[in-house]
Each structure stands twice: as structure tokens, then as C-alpha cells.
Write a structure and sequence with these properties.
Elements: E1 2-5, E2 24-29, H1 39-47, E3 57-59, E4 64-67, H2 85-89, E5 90-95, H3 103-121, E6 128-130, H4 131-135, H5 141-145, H6 149-153, H7 193-199, H8 206-215, H9 225-236, H10 266-272, H11 279-288, H12 298-312, H13 327-333, H14 340-349, H15 359-370, H16 389-395, H17 402-411, H18 421-432
Parallel strand pairs: 1-4, 2-5, 2-6, 3-5
Antiparallel strand pairs: 3-4
This protein binds zinc ion.
């Protein structure tokens, strides 16, 4: 197998350049079934300055693998946020699904590459995960349909030589998670989560344990001994609110992958998914996604676009159905994915722990979202008494040059900005009010 290093230009917005020390490998499929949509084509696509996402390797059925990023730099591929473990600690591999390719061979090639990377970075088999693991997005779809990441793991050469805790007995994943009954039943002496789940007649597969873990607030479940002990303790103590757990939809609509997938404009993209594209809301989204001092520069917009396309968008405030008491109705009214997975993500982002969809959690989430999310306090700090626009901008770390003020002015509907006292005071009021 031959790897061509064809890196995304460093000036591109989709080459974030955060240091990567890989501890996971994330498997994707390109979802592009067009004839000719092979690794070489994706290498061209990912270098396009308007492409918002990025990953490390694309593999097709041929002998040539394309590498798009150095392995000490992260990409935006996992949909778990600007500081998410998937985006910041995993190597992303895209497998081509072009209709004129041999997908089985492409998967085997990806398995071989995965083996090389596992050896190079000492990554254990249980840290080879699906994109779905990070964000809930149904990717890699064909692999998920064919048995999930466990199926893919069987295509990794010498996979069985890597010890993986409790993975060997994992049966095919069940389509629906099953929750244990509340405390007091089952094997009360075992130290093994698998034995315990079996004793109470609950699916003990990796997939179901992962689901139970995430429902119980254990992040990034990979089946470590520590996580298993914690999960066992939580389940035995009846902390799982089994009665209120809704069944996730069989094929949740992904929060990423929707909307206008070709535009390079954050405003066009947000409009296409029914989300408020005002400066204030973009500033809020930027802040929530780790972009400091958002002023709407081209670079910030490209980065924000990349992040929200990857699944980080949160709903706007003050829009949508303002009377309903149902979170699902409300989310639908503002065009936001109301699946259990997405609600769980929104809950987490808004400080609601261990979301299982109880009535109380739903009411709390509805209130927080209607009020503009956890960071509702105005998008920019208040101006101080007697403070001018330049001092104000400098204090909050925003470019106070004439050209930036002029740009901000036009965004706030102040025409023909020349920097008059009146315009400056209006701008200050708009920004800080
Ligand atoms: Zn993916």
C-alpha cells in the first residue's frame, strides 16, 4: 500500500493546526456514491478553500491512499465540537463508497491502514471507533448496517492479538438499547458489568453498554476497566432512570450533514438549516465553539462554518414556537433536529447532566434553549460608563481599527460609517446593549 501525502494548504480554514496526539482512530464513509468519487477526488475536494471539514486519510479500493493532514495536526471530522475528543484526539479515515469501486476491498485497505496506525501510535482495538461514536451521526453508514464497528474491526489484520476487555463475547449489536430494571435485582456480587447485565437479562453487548454509559453520564465509553466498574456501580444503584428513557429513533437524522453543504458562507449555511444568522447569534455560536473575540472576519467565519457543519450548531434564541411546553415541538418549530441524540447533545451543552429525557429535564432544556442557551447573558460585555467605542473594543479584545469598526457598523445597519461621534456612540450601543 502506497500513501501519497497531499496536504491541505496551511492557509485553508479546514486545516486548524491544533496539536494532535492520536489516541483514537475514527472510521468514516464518504457517503458519496458518484462514479469517480475515489480517494484522488476527495484529495482534491478537501484542499478546496471552501471545504469546511477535514480528515487525515481517504482510502478507496486501489493501492494508493491519500493523506490530507500530518498526523500531529487535528482535523474537523468527528462532529463533537471544537474541543471534542473525536476532533482533537483522533485520526480520521474516510472510506470511499463510489459506485464504481469495490467497497469490500476499500474496507480491507482501510483495515490495513488502521493496523499500521494502531501500531505506530499504540492505539488499542477498542479505540478504533465509528464517527457515530462521537456525534451520533449515522456514519460510516454501510459499516453500521453491516454490523457496526465490530464488523470493521474484524477486517483489521491481527486484530485478535490485541487484548480487548470484554469485547470478544460481544454479539451483534441490538437495534434497540435495553435498560436494566432498577436496583436490587440481578447478580449483586459480581464485579463484571457483562455478568451483571446477563444476570438481569439485559443485552451486554458493547453497543448497549456504550448506550447505557452515555445515558449515565460516562463520556466516550470504550470499555475500560474503570468505566465498566463505574457503569456497574451506577446501574446497581439504580441511577439509570429506566422508566423515562425514550427509545432513540432507529435512524436519527444527523444534525450534521444537513443544510447547504456546498456554500462557503456561514450566513447562507445557517439560513439553510433555519438557524438565526445574525451577528449576535454567530457570535454566540463562535463563543460556544471556542472561537475567541468573534468579529466576523473571513477566517473566523470559515472556521465557524466548519464547526457548525460538523454538528455544533445550537438553536437560536427568541424564535420558534414560544407557547408549546414540548421540547420536541419547539425544536421542530425552529428547524432543529429533535431526535433523542440531538436533545442529549443540547442538554450536555447546556449543563444538564445525564439527560435521559425525563419531563423535568425536557422542561429545563426547553427553558434554557428558549432563553438562548447557557450563555444567554448578552453576546458582548456591557460598555463602561463614559467608555468610547475604541476603548471598548480594545478592552474586549476586538480589532478597533477604522476598517473593522466600519465593517461592524455596516453589520449593525449603520450606513456610511465615517467614525463620527454619533455613529460611534450608536455602534457602541448596538454592540454592548
Ligand atoms: Zn463520518
Amino acid at each position: 500500500m502506497n500513501i501519497i501525502q497531499d496536504f491541505i494548504p496551511a492557509s485553508n480554514g479546514n486545516r486548524p493546526g491544533y496539536a494532535l496526539n492520536p489516541t483514537y482512530i475514527t472510521i468514516h464513509e464518504t457517503a458519496n456514491t458518484s462514479a469517480g468519487a475515489n480517494a484522488a477526488m476527495h484529495a482534491r475536494y478537501v484542499k478546496n478553500p471552501t471545504t469546511a471539514v477535514s480528515w487525515h486519510f481517504t482510502v478507496d479500493d486501489g493501492q494508493t491512499i491519500y493523506q490530507h493532514l500530518p498526523l500531529n495536526e487535528n482535523g474537523w471530522h468527528a462532529g463533537d465540537g471544537g474541543s471534542g475528543t473525536g476532533n482533537r484526539q483522533s485520526i480520521g479515515i474516510e472510506i470511499c463508497v463510489n459506485r464504481d469501486g469495490d467497497f469490500q476491498q476499500a474496507m480491507r485497505n482501510a483495515g490495513q491502514l488502521t493496523r499500521q496506525l494502531m501500531d505506530q501510535f499504540q492505539i488499542p482495538l477498542d479505540r478504533v471507533v465509528a464517527h457515530q461514536h462521537w456525534s451520533g451521526k449515522r456514519c460510516p453508514a454501510n459499516i453500521i448496517n453491516a454490523g457496526g464497528i465490530e464488523m470493521f474491526r474484524t477486517l483489521i489484520p491481527n486484530a485478535s492479538t490485541i487484548p480487548v476487555e470484554e469485547e470478544n463475547n460481544a454479539p451483534a449489536p441490538s437495534p434497540q438499547p435495553t435498560s436494566p430494571p432498577s436496583n436490587g435485582s440481578g447478580n449483586q456480587t459480581t464485579g463484571s458489568i457483562v455478568t451483571y447485565l446477563n444476570s438481569i437479562g439485559v443485552d451486554s453487548s458493547f453497543e448497549n453498554r456504550a448506550r447505557l454509559a452515555s445515558q449515565n453520564g460516562i463520556q466516550n465509553y470504550t470499555g475500560t476497566a474503570e468505566q465498566n466498574t463505574r457503569l456497574l456501580s451506577l446501574l446497581r444503584n439504580g441511577q439509570e432512570s429506566s422508566g423515562n428513557t425514550p427509545s432513540p429513533s432507529p435512524a436519527p437524522p444527523p444534525s450534521s450533514g444537513s443544510g447547504n453543504q456546498t456554500t462557503g458562507s456561514i450566513v447562507t449555511y445557517l439560513n439553510s438549516i433555519g438557524v438565526d444568522s445574525s451577528f449576535e447569534n454567530r457570535a454566540r455560536l463562535a463563543r460556544q465553539n471556542g472561537i475567541q473575540n468573534y468579529t466576523g472576519t473571513a477566517e473566523q467565519n470559515t472556521r465557524l462554518l466548519s464547526l457548525v457543519r460538523n454538528g455544533n450548531v445550537t438553536p437560536p434564541s427568541n424564535s420558534g414556537n414560544q407557547t408549546t411546553g414540548s421540547i420536541v415541538t419547539y425544536l421542530n418549530s425552529i428547524g432543529v433536529d429533535s431526535s433523542f441524540e440531538n436533545r442529549a447533545r443540547l442538554a450536555r451543552q447546556n449543563g444538564i447532566q445525564n439527560y435521559t429525557g425525563t419531563a423535568a429535564q425536557n422542561t429545563q432544556l426547553l427553558q434554557r434553549l428558549r432563553n438562548g442557551g447557557s450563555n444567554h447573558s448578552s453576546s458582548l460585555p456591557k460598555a463602561r460608563q463614559g467608555e468610547g467605542i475604541v476603548d471598548y473594543l480594545n478592552r474586549i479584545g476586538v480589532d478597533s481599527s477604522f476598517s473593522n469598526r466600519s465593517r461592524l457598523a455596516s453589520q449593525y445597519g449603520i450606513a456610511n460609517y465615517r467614525g463620527t461621534a454619533q455613529q460611534n456612540s450608536r455602534l457602541l450601543n448596538q454592540l454592548s446593549g
